[in-house]
Amino acid sequence: MKSLIAWSVKNWQAMNVIMVGVLLLGVFSLSQLRRDFWPDFELYVLSVSVEYPGASPDEIEEGILEKIEESIRTVDGVEEMTSLAREGMGTVTLELDPDANQADAQRVLTEVTTLIGQIPSFPELAEKPDIRMNTNFVTAIRVAVMGPTVAELSNLVDRQSSGSLLGVDDSNGDFRYDEEEAKAEAALALRRVAEQIREEILALPSVSVADLVGTPDYQIDIEIPEDTLRKYNLSLQSVAEIVRANNVELPGGTLRGRSQEVLLRGSDKSTVGAGIEEIPLVSQPGGAVLTVGDLGRVRDEFSVEGSINEVNGHPAILVSIETTSADDLIEVAEEVRQFVEEGSDALPSGYSLMAIRDRSTSVKNRLDLLSKNAWMGLVLVFIVLALFLEMRLAWWVMLGIPISLLGACIYMHFGGHTLNMTSMFAFLIALGIVVDDAIVVGENIYVHREMGKSYRQAAIDGAYEVMPSVITAILTTVIAFAPIMYMEGRIKRLTVVLPMCVGAMLIISMFESLTILPSHLSHKRSRFLDAMTYVLFPLRPLGWLLEKANAGMSALLTRCIDRLYTPILRWSLRNPAIVLSTLAAMLILSVGVVRSGMVPFLLLPKIDFGFITVQVTYPDGTPVDITNAATKRLEDAIWKVNQRSIDEKMTGDPGGFVQAVQRTVGSSGDEVGSSVAGHVGGLFIQLNDIGERTVSSDDIVRMWREESGRFPGAEAVAFGATPRGPASLPIEMRLMATGENLAMLDEAIERCKIKLGEYPYVSDIATDTRQGKWEYRIKVRDDAKAMGVSLADVAGTVRASYYGEEVMRLQRGRHEVPLRVRYPREDRNTLVSFNDIRVRGTDRMERPLNEIVEVDVQRGYSEISRVNQMRSISVVADVDETRGNAFNVVSDLKANFVPEFRKEFPGVQLQWGGQQEQTDETVNSLFVGFFFVLGAMFLLLTIQFNSSWQAILILSIIPFGFIGAIFGHIVMDIDLTLFSIFGIVALAGVVVNDSIVLVDFINRRVADGLPLHDAIIDGGRRRFRAVLLTSVTTCAGMMPILLERSKEAQVVSPMATSLTFGLALSTLVVLILAPVMYLVIAKISPPPSQASSG
């Protein structure tokens, strides 16, 4: 290895070429990196959906879900199987193992498709199963396509010229305004505009995926009253048959002539409501023909009635733009925003566009924040190096940082990684660490020069002397990050890139410090530095100040070593028991502080993306008007809070912190109000950026909740702030049962809700299942059976009346539009119409429904959830983290509630979900991985020092860095998070690096024949500057983040706190505890030279 260093020194020009090449290629790679908030990860989730129109959740569970679950339960590679039954739809979801790859996903998809195809039968009216592997898209931004309000429609002056959009012609040909018709036509017009906007957005170069959300499907209804049907001796079924026979397009073969072939086709098919109205239904004796439009009404509208989707009070449809693994989130969002600005002017009168839910703003601001602090940290590192080392040496040592960082960018670019929060964490962590080996090498070369050697020989000998220690130190640090790669749970997908990036930077740094750095330090003068002297001429006064400060710091450092460190070290060596017992007591106290909850642990801190939501849920079957009024009240409340923010100057924005309000009632396909029933509604509020306001999203939610008041009759009103990445709600208790134990679930749920309600800082307690609509369960009377009336006849007639008799599916563009025949909308909303339904028996006689059936009124669940073939109900809750934390709540529940609960409900299984499940998986796997890491470190250190005791010495120092990290969290008043652990891992690497070099130098002094005490003191004095410098440079790199007061830095602050405060104490620990431990271990197992002399 010495020959490699000598070759690098000799071929310094080649080293310069390598250095410049890495820098240039690194800059190019950095410019090509895609940007996102979290790293790319593949989340393989397979879903099997079966539509069963009109069926209740109980029917779907029994007729569909249980059959699918039983058929695919043996499929290998599935981590969890969940099922959901709701009115008209059943879905089974398979979440594959976190380590699954594309081949595994394809295998599972093939197996599931085959096994479901072998199921003997589904209910007759159920649709074909839809099996798909869901793609992992990330929403970048949404565009609200907003149309005119009802008030704007009614106030338009020139209604006649506006055509059917604003009114209808009466029988006299005069124009009249019909609000219901106008709203229906306006909704269709808005949908057409939204479809066009979607196509235009998809045409943008950077956009790959764009879909409409919150929009029901198209549907055409032929509505004919019962009286009309009886008048012309028709039924809904017969109407469907007539329409089906007259709205066709059939191929008729090919006419082959002498000169050409002609296709023959029978075509009289309409795909729009106006054409359906012209289909003949009844021929009268006089020859007149009555059409569909003569006997009833054709509604060419949507499948969901009464749904509401508004943005800032205007009817709206959202276009969701999503990114794939090949897209740059910020680039996509910028292009879409530009389209919105330019495209609004081209829309018809009354329509407008608005960009909402722009995730790129938060991503860009946080990446800019981290970049700014990284540059500030780099400058501080250079200043620290210049204070302790000569200017020339400081420059070349500091240059190792950009070489390592840009070298890692090359790896990230060609490895397919993105520039995201996790990779930026890696850069920040490495900012102070990657310079450590360069400091050790550079400082040792400097010492060898002071011995009188030439620059060339000092560079070779100085680098070679510490090379084994540097290599071992780098490898142990890389190994220290390994457990993060093998964590369990979803959080692994967000953090696996961190050890990869840190490892790449450390390996590049090791190569640079042992080859490029010695080649630069082997010359007395450098043409590059001479040129930089002229380029940076305006900064020469700063350089002069640093040189003067360097002389002062060198003298101060020498006095500190002589007058402070050496006496303390001598005293510690005389009193090892006091030193060891004091530090051990501090360590025990730190562990106790964490275990007691004084410093709570959260898997991920809340990240303020600037979005808040509320969802209000009434009992299933509640009229839409009640839900609509509740959401309007919530909307009024948030605008009042917004006005308060203006009055009290909570934001610098003159319009307040509310930028957009999306209100939904019964909409589907969106996060808010995802149910298609009118009893569910919600609001999504887009706030301005957190840097522009003095209050957090949680504070705004608290004010909003207080302003909104209570909602009598509502089953749940759930307010929410920003998400936590892959972790879900702070508290989730999942209760599961099967068979005869299902009766216990309701009571068990209530017990859990009552217990959670006892905690004053726990809010928004809710379950994922509620009472469904009232059900009329029909049974045919015995006397009716004797008349030839069957249950199939009754059920078919009732289904056709309300759900509709399906005629056909019409293909209209990219949409498949069902055509149905049923009763008019107003007749489907009354019990009188239900009783007036006429049913024909085998004798062709019509009888009123109430004369032939008995009705049993029951009520089931609105949704039924299942997990791994067991009925499951979850109790979820949020926690006000300003008053308490989920860790303490769950700990108390486990200790004081769960044992009694399991005794009271032995047939109910209780599992923890949400953040607790993720925390248990992550922390447990980290601890297991850490023990493997200790074993690998022990092996490396034993090889390095040829002494297992000295390996134990170095490893025993690692836990003491934990003391400073915990103290830092108490001082900064922040919670422990996963990123705190990342900081502690990095801290362990620095501690091990310093300890290795220190122990190695003590061994060298012992090998030179010095007495043990003198060798320990001389080694400590010799390595004092290097140990202090590695710690101070790392702290300097972290200082900008640590002192950053912006709320945008809330995620990285725990990491900086762990590393900075931990190093502050670890420096003392390494310089004092390592020599003391060396002395203690030397008495047990003397170093080789001492043992031989003894």
Automatic annotation (TrEMBL):
Gene3D superfamilies: Multidrug efflux transporter AcrB pore domain (3.30.70.1430), Multidrug efflux transporter AcrB pore domain like (3.30.70.1320), Multidrug efflux transporter AcrB TolC docking domain, DN and DC subdomains (3.30.2090.10), Multidrug efflux transporter AcrB transmembrane domain (1.20.1640.10)
Superkingdom: Bacteria
Keywords carried by this UniProt record: Membrane, Transmembrane, Transmembrane helix
Matching Pfam families: ACR_tran
InterPro entries for the chain: AcrB_DN_DC_subdom, Acrflvin-R
Transmembrane portions of the chain: 12-30, 369-389, 395-414, 426-446, 466-487, 494-517, 578-603, 926-945, 952-972, 978-1003, 1024-1043, 1055-1081
GO (cellular component) term, any one: plasma membrane
Classification via SUPFAM superfamilies: Multidrug efflux transporter AcrB pore domain, PN1, PN2, PC1 and PC2 subdomains, Multidrug efflux transporter AcrB TolC docking domain, DN and DC subdomains, Multidrug efflux transporter AcrB transmembrane domain
Transmembrane in keyword set: yes
GO molecular function terms noted in the UniProt entry: xenobiotic transmembrane transporter activity
This protein's name: Multidrug transporter
